[in-house]
């Protein structure tokens, strides 16, 4: 029962993270680009960060726990194992997400570089969707 509860919390956090980035990419970013107005992104981020960043932290924590259950010997890097393959791919996406976030936070946002930030936003959104796809694939028996 504990594992199922943690998986549910993980899915809920993924919904917040991915949904927020879809709203940003599809609903907010086009208007900011059309108006060339960085403040539109800042306004969204100021409302999303208080729930988005905790959701990301919850994803990392619950994902780490789920990893210990499904792939206790993940560091064997056995790509033939169904869960190991999916989880390693998810960790790879997490590293890319963190690199993009750090780059955006410390370089693009202080410069108010809207066009490069828009590329980051789209990439993080695509990665968030890939996270969901990989989670679905792992739980459904695999599409990978």
UniProtKB/TrEMBL annotation:
Ranges that cross the membrane: 6-30, 51-71, 91-108, 120-138
Keywords: Membrane, Transmembrane, Transmembrane helix
Domain Copper resistance protein D, chain residue ranges per copy: 43-134
One GO CC annotation: membrane
One Pfam short name: CopD
Name of the protein described by the UniProt record: CopD family protein
Organism: Lentiprolixibacter aurantiacus
